[in-house]
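User: For a benchmark we're assembling, each entry needs the component sequences followed by a predicted structure for the full assembly. Here are entry 17's components. Please fill in the structure.
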Amino acid sequence: MTSNPPPVAHHHWVVTLVCADRPGIVHAVSGAIVRARGNITESQQFSSADTGRFFMRLQVESPADRAELEAGLAPVVDRYEMTSVIDVVGRPLRTLVLASTAGHCVNDLLFRQRAGQLPVEIPLVLSNHGTLRDLVGFYGVPFESLPITDAASKAAFEARVVDAVEQNDIELVVLARFMQILSPGLCERLAGRAINIHHSFLPGFKGANPYRQAHARGVKLIGATAHFVTGDLDEGPIIEQNVVRVDHSRTPGELVAIGQDEESRTLSQAVKWFAENRVLVDGARTIIFK
Amino acid sequence: MTSNPPPVAHHHWVVTLVCADRPGIVHAVSGAIVRARGNITESQQFSSADTGRFFMRLQVESPADRAELEAGLAPVVDRYEMTSVIDVVGRPLRTLVLASTAGHCVNDLLFRQRAGQLPVEIPLVLSNHGTLRDLVGFYGVPFESLPITDAASKAAFEARVVDAVEQNDIELVVLARFMQILSPGLCERLAGRAINIHHSFLPGFKGANPYRQAHARGVKLIGATAHFVTGDLDEGPIIEQNVVRVDHSRTPGELVAIGQDEESRTLSQAVKWFAENRVLVDGARTIIFK
Amino acid sequence: MTSNPPPVAHHHWVVTLVCADRPGIVHAVSGAIVRARGNITESQQFSSADTGRFFMRLQVESPADRAELEAGLAPVVDRYEMTSVIDVVGRPLRTLVLASTAGHCVNDLLFRQRAGQLPVEIPLVLSNHGTLRDLVGFYGVPFESLPITDAASKAAFEARVVDAVEQNDIELVVLARFMQILSPGLCERLAGRAINIHHSFLPGFKGANPYRQAHARGVKLIGATAHFVTGDLDEGPIIEQNVVRVDHSRTPGELVAIGQDEESRTLSQAVKWFAENRVLVDGARTIIFK
Amino acid sequence: MTSNPPPVAHHHWVVTLVCADRPGIVHAVSGAIVRARGNITESQQFSSADTGRFFMRLQVESPADRAELEAGLAPVVDRYEMTSVIDVVGRPLRTLVLASTAGHCVNDLLFRQRAGQLPVEIPLVLSNHGTLRDLVGFYGVPFESLPITDAASKAAFEARVVDAVEQNDIELVVLARFMQILSPGLCERLAGRAINIHHSFLPGFKGANPYRQAHARGVKLIGATAHFVTGDLDEGPIIEQNVVRVDHSRTPGELVAIGQDEESRTLSQAVKWFAENRVLVDGARTIIFK
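Assistant: Structure for entry 17:
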């Protein structure tokens, strides 16, 4: 709710709250916002029948600074044992991109970041190949490559990921067609803050060269799925999916190109929602507050 | 929010609230819901920067009956000078359909109603032609025709509309390709509860036979707009719009058929949202809480 | 191509031709059409790099009757060893519908047939349950039920299918959520003229209650696939696929309802294209000349 | 049609043919292609009932060079008085971009060109402002600005356009939100090879600030139209249109941003089809052979 604007500077806050579902939460939260002199400009909530969890995302305008807003919310957060996040609307998320040789997803992320469509900062693109050095440089983003050829070099690569995350205060790791399976330990460490993209078909295809299989079966839709990275390959909570229509005249090569477009836009969409604090995890599922 | 269900029957209520925007409304409303032993299962809100109005739609589960819920909300409704509606989720809306000779929209409404996809009851279809008598009878709905040939017969038709509205406790009048302009008096009387459908093009075309004009210009999209009826023909607040892609190979006749499909589904969608209390009016605009 | 219309009645023919791909086919075919006094009003072709087959669909206006058109095409059909079909544009296809208890696909087929949107005649709906008797009767279509409870009754049901196909000159068998696996012998007998529908997800789910699994994984798209029936369950050549976007707020029951809408429209679309001679089979794939 | 490939290099040609519609054209054309040792790999045709014109687009693989292909087609082109174009599939079209201060369309064109998604070469971006100099330079494309402040400077700008077209063998001029009305003389000179983009709404809005009007009316769809430039502003043959769904929560500023995305992708799509010889003009309409 907006009122006549007072003559002081307002901050625009985003708040996410997760707790066990009970009656009265909305009332308690809205009361806390009132006490912190905030107006709720956007509000979404969801009660999960599966897990009994309650999820809420608010955008709040207030002359209060972070300390005042936190103090206002603290009694409610404590009482309902909430997991809470308070952030500034539009603050760029510090994001590490992992890549291999394919440039389409990396390029789409960097282009949208530069065009102001993706609220992220990308201090580093890290790859196991040098292929994308020029592309990344074109956008003025640091690029580093470390080959992965065996268990030792893979461990070294992962150690570099861990370092880069710490050195750069990374909040999100994006696997932009990275094509490598992360070790269980790294998956664990990055749980809930690493996003992967892969192609998707109806029906699904197992094994190598799925686009060739999709062509052989004459599928009419091909698509992509962006999901959180977990120890189960390609099985983490789904954030976004898209498909596009194809027909019999498409060669396997054309299916690859079309699929790459879907991968790019699906990954960028998932990253955007994550950076805007719109993605909350409910067990094996995501809640997306668009 | 849902809690462990108490061992009493619950009602599922929908509540809409509209008032001047001020701080604290959400807090006050959620407090009233708590007092009426309600859990908010769905909540949407919007603050209009154009008119300074605040709009809210809630779904609430509660063991309270209507009197208790109304009593709980009354202090808030009074304090904020709210326009409020309390209804039972899923209650069929009593709907009068006005038709002419074209059957596509009438058929779609009746089919969806019968299939359980449209929460309306249709006690009468009223037409200025007898063309649709068999179609309407097929669905077991009463049908009445009254010719409109001059000013006197038009006035008689409109008088019959007014009677039918009163006799049948009509809450919504749907102009399903009725093709007649309602008199200013009847527009006024039905303000906010009459919905019309018309075809839409980019760019718009004035004058007769717009599908032929659309064909001549080779438009690539044709569509339909459902809107509230006002004194300004085809200019009331827009509820829903759809378009569909066409190409150069379509004849004017095919454009008409495609356009009719869009008209049917757009009108049915608008009626469904209205019947679900999802459509609120904000000056010349609508707020749609999907 | 259209010319000044001669003062004789014209027929509108659809012709499909399939043969091994070689140079000169289009020239030979168009010459034969010229000899049969035909104008090609629509023409589509496809050369399959996978199988080396050439596919063509023509619509032809001509004063020639079927005998003259066949005679005109015969030398080309012989020379290129073509599989050819000559039919009248818009002729209703004689279609047998197999159903179980779910009514959504049956209702959609019957409604569209009646509305003139589906060029089929349906002389019989055959079911292993009596559930849909009233619905089918509502559309004036004969309905017959024969329970399937064991191997013997299943064999009897399939024998009735074979009889019904022969007695009614059936050209297409539609499994409208029939939920029974046809025996290999019946699959073989109906090869290329039986269409099935099933739900589809990204990723696919094995086992019972896929909508519940889809809910548990939080999929963002659900859909349906219409395909030819083969001995491999759910694995015949795909004719059409659709998906629709869902979000976290949908219950498993809502996913079922949404999925049923997709099944209905996808099956009806596949039947329509088949009835219009737009579906040709190329090994495990279909060519769809929309 | 493809045959066993001969052991010589093949060219991939695109051929477009337009003439008065008469029987026998397809036969004559396919015969000429056979004589030029060509295999037709893609073929589309359309007979316009409005103008009596016949339109055809072929892709042909052949060991023949341009001279042999032209010679093979010449008798047919002469006999049917065809307008014919023979081009190499994938050849980049020499394209001049005219711009003003808005960068979204220019950026999209340059990005897609660079990403290999748009078969154009852009030797120059010409603007009446200097705003986009850095953006264009980022892609390594020459940029020139010439202010337009009065009739004389406008005439000078247009003279520079004419020079640039001649000096650079320009085949297409793209008005990428150029915001200036070309003089009738320049429209005439560039007829059929200049493409403009503008926003589109249902219903259409006249006058200034259409996004603000669209917001005030609460439209649910906003879009864009790409069309050929003619003397009638915003009224040339339409090449492509897109819309996107918006809702009541969008500010006028957000509508502008959304509309710009539609403008960008619609313009790029139109340019792509034009560059691929897929756009043919039929009076006030276009034939698009996708």
